[in-house]
Amino acid sequence: WADILVQLGIADDGLILAGFDRENIRYAIRPRVGMARQLKEFIEENPGAGIVYTPTRTGAEKLAVQLAEMTGRKVAAYHAGLSPEVRARVQSEFVASEDGIVTATVAFGMGIDKPDVRFVAHAGLPKSIEGYYQETGRGGRDGDPAEALMLWGAEDFARARMRLSELPEARIASERARLEALAALVETVECRRALLLRHFGETPADQCGNC
Q1: Which of 9, 64, 165, 193 falls 20 to 30 Å from 145 in CA-CA distance?
Q2: What distance in Å separates the CA atoms of residue 53 and residue 72, rounded to the nearest whole number?
Q3: Distance, CA of 194 to CA of 181 (rounded, Å)
Q4: What is the pLDDT of residue 111?
Q5: CA distance 179 to 162
């Protein structure tokens, strides 16, 4: 952060450093055994606005239709393959809504100013712990409780390992480390919040009671 202040010419008077712990977010990670049904139940338990991240554009569109039919809620898909006009409309309607849902690829979320997102779900494995933290962090920015759910399957890791073989040699080690960190988060029987915070260099309590 010191280098950022220097580059931007900002004085450090009044600088506030915050930790990575988002205490109001409850983390849950479960095996994927009937994704649409699991998401339906999760959405029914969380009546506010929410985001469901999917790995693919096709998945975002298909899931939007499924969840709208299953829950009766307004659900819109968002991904980079849509026209700028459609993306702008989906985003503005979501920001204005109290209970809207967006099924999206990781193209959605950057710069969106919506503090009252009550849940963030991942229908598949995120690309990294850093991505997972950033994406789940779009929930509960108003300080009220928010829920984060990740649904994963063994096939997610199989596909990720296959992609490793397609990378340039210089990137394989770092990407493998990212995947191993995700596997540790998914498979741990201990506090997941503690694992997240240790990943970012913080020393957490052994158990948070909210994961």
Answers
A1: 64
A2: 19
A3: 13
A4: 66
A5: 12
Q: What are 82-111's pLDDT values in tens digits?
A: 999 999 999 999 999 999 999 999 878 766
Distance CA(146)–CA(139), nearest Å, equals 6
The pTM of this model reads 0.89
In this structure, the strands spanning 117-122 and 25-31 are unpaired
64's tokens: 């939007």
Cα-based distances in Å from 82 to 67, 68, 88: 19, 19, 10
Sign of CA dihedral 35, 125, 22, 16: negative
Residue carrying structure tokens 């991240």: 53
The answer to whether 17 and 1 have CB atoms below 8 angstroms apart is yes
Provide DSSP, 60-122.
HHHHHHHHHHHH-S-EEEE-TTS-HHHHHHHHHHHHH-SS-EEEE-TTS-TT---TTEEEEEE
Q: Where are the beta strands (DSSP E) in the chain?
A: 25-31, 49-53, 75-78, 101-104, 117-122, 146-152
